[in-house]
Each structure stands twice: as C-alpha cells, then as structure tokens.
Amino acid sequence: MPSTRSKAVTEKPGAKDPKTEALQSVAVPHKTFILPSKRSDASRFLTLPNPSSGVLSRYFFDPTAGLYEFTAVSSTQFAPKSILFAAKDGEEGEDKHRFRSYVLKKAELLIATPIDVLFFMLPIVAPADNAGSTSNMFQPLDDILDSQDELSQHLRHVLYDITFRPTLERRMQAICDIMDAADETLYRFSEQKLLNELIAKANRMVAQGLPASLEENFIRRVLDPPLMSVKRDDVVTTTVSATASKEDSQDLEVEETQSASATTVSTISGQPSGLATPATQPSTVDEISSSESIARLLRLRIALSFMKQSYLPIHLVNKVEDSLKLSESPLDFTPLETRLKELADLRAEALASHAIGDYTRKRGFEEDDDAERAEAKRRKEEEKKKASESRGVRELKKVNTSGMKKMSDFFKKKS
C-alpha cells in the first residue's frame, strides 16, 4: 500500500509554456493518482499487459521501490460525490494561476498499490504452449528473457533494468528451481513452488484481514446456518364464538384461553411461524474451534480465488486447482467441503419445511373459506324458500297442532 505521505498527482495535457498556459486557462485534469511519497527520479508510468488477461493497463514502476498497479476508489452511482482540489495557504508562489482550485465531477482516486513482478514472469517462464519450448530446462535468466521476441517495450524496460535486477532474480527463485553453474544461476519453473508461494500470499492476506465486503458476502453469509422455525405455545390467544338463543337474538361470548407451557423449538417444523432460530449453534469449545478453522479455510480459498482470477494466466489457473485437489496438497479443504455440503442440505430441508408450512396454512384458510361460502349459500337458499311461501302457509306454520289428528287418520281403514 502507498505511504501515508503519498502525494496526489493530477494528469493534464502538456503545455509548451506553463506560464502562458496558466494565464490562458487552467485545464481540469481527468484523473488523479495517489503515488508513493518516496520514489526516485527514475520512476515512470508504464503500459504493461495484464498478467491474467493480457489487456494493456497502466502501471507505475520505480526501480528502487518496485512495481505498482492502480486500484480505483470511487463513489457509487447511488451516492455520487465530487472532489475539490485547492492549494494550501502560502503555496501559491509568484504565479497564483498555476494553483487555481478546481472541482472533479467524478470522485475517483487511482491509488498505487504494490504488485509482485513474478506474475509478469509467469507467462514467460511457463507459456501456455510448451511444445518446442525450453521451459522445462535449466536456463540463465538472460537466455529466458532473450528468447521472448514479443515482449512489449515497456515490459523490457522493467525486466532489463539494472537497479531492479536483484529484485527480479529474488522473485524468480520463489517460483523456479535453481541450479548454480559456474558463475551463473540457472532457473526452471516449478508448479509446486508457485503453489507454495500463492498459499503463503493467501496466509498473509488472511492474517491482515480480508476487506469487510468480502468477509460479509463470502464468509459470514456462506457459513451462517439456515433459519429454522420456532413453535411457541405460550402465546395468549382470544377466540370469539357466537351462540344463538331460543329467541331470535344472538349473544357474543368471549372466551380467553392462555397456555403456560414452555416454548418448544423444532429443528424442522411443518408449520413455521414468524419466529426463527439458527439450525446449529456451536456451544462447546471444540465446536467453536472447528467453526473457526473452517472459516479460516474459506478465507484462504477466497484469497486464492482472487489471486487466480486477477493475476494468473488461464492455463496456470487450471494447474493450480488440480494441484490443490491432490492428497499431497499443502492445504486440505475436505473439512470445508463437508461443512458446506451439510449447510446445503440444511438449507434445502428448511426450504422444503417452509414450503410445507405455507401449503398447510394456505390449505387451512381455503377450507375455512369453503365452509363460510357453504353456510352463506345455505342461508341464502333458506331465505329464497321463505320468500316463495305464501302468507297463508306461513300463518299455518304458526298454528299449534299438538293434540290434533293428522289428515291421514281419517282415511285409514277401519279394523
């Protein structure tokens, strides 16, 4: 990372005469770079091919300090911001026009962050097509570099710099087997050394702490157990029942029932309520230690994935992934894979449980609606039947016929 005393350097079009240009109009720069404060006069902006994609990108090279890439830090589209640049008091000098304040509409800073030069050496020492190449042989560094005819001019400037040569040789030793022959050191690319170097970098990243966004989205959310339902029996419920009296009046009777039983937690409940709890909660020291080790393995995997996607060529990414799956790999991700499979099964089970609960509640509501509709239909039919009856029939229904003989009694045969 750049020093805390890093200085901001603004990029603007060059002028033949700075004083004349300042008197006319000060051009607002389009980009702002934060560079290391301790840099030599030999430092330069260079355009180098990205180690992973090969796309030309801008870098900052200082033979004494090393190679830097630029990390863009900008405001989000949902909260746009701007930057005001102004000179401090007493720094205007004789020509105040050269230090005129200006505002950048887009709040973006390009911060120089160190990048390991070995990533730029990987496409050279381990090309994608090994047919006819001498990458599997011990060679001097100069012969390796001279065999590359398609190197860009800026990359040659970095690799052939005398001051930077000790750093380049030291980083070559991190990914190559070496052999001394007379006064020369010979190099041969080693996949195992590359894997060990990547793991060492991942360990340093984890020790320093991953960014908060990575920790939240790729660690905590992935390892959080799914939420299961909680069945509560200590909730006060109120029911209203309607009772009809013999007279044509209805009284509402309110019954309050309260259950004081303890709350029961179901791991998988068929009728989930609005309350939920994690499926697994480590309580013992061994479980907590195990969860921390699994979280560390996941952090290492995220760090390795970031480096593979950002800095490694495609053909080396596949080789590194295959090496990590071998039994002799320095990292064993088997506990992590087992835990992730358990969490996946729990999430699937919880999802199925919630789906069953939703169906049960929906089915119950549908049955209640059907009963209400049937009752309303019956009442409506009774009202229609009453409306179709004549007044005489209704009056006859009110007559007390107890003690009277039925009409059929008069037509029975005499015994």
From TrEMBL:
Keywords: Nucleus. GO terms for cellular component: nucleoplasm; ribonuclease H2 complex. Residues 34-116 form the Rnh202 triple barrel domain. Residues 257-283 have a biased composition (Polar residues). Residues 8-20, 373-398 have a biased composition (Basic and acidic residues). Its main location: nucleus. One of its GO terms (biological process) is RNA catabolic process. The keyword Nucleus applies. Gene3D superfamilies: 1.10.20.120. Transmembrane segments: none annotated. Residues 1-21, 241-283, 361-401 are annotated as: Disordered. The keyword Lyase does not apply. It is found in: Nucleus. Residues 119-320 form the Ribonuclease H2 subunit B wHTH domain. Non catalytic subunit of RNase H2, an endonuclease that specifically degrades the RNA of RNA:DNA hybrids. Participates in DNA replication, possibly by mediating the removal of lagging-strand Okazaki fragment RNA primers during DNA replication. Mediates the excision of single ribonucleotides from DNA:RNA duplexes. This is Ribonuclease H2 subunit B. It comes from Talaromyces atroroseus.
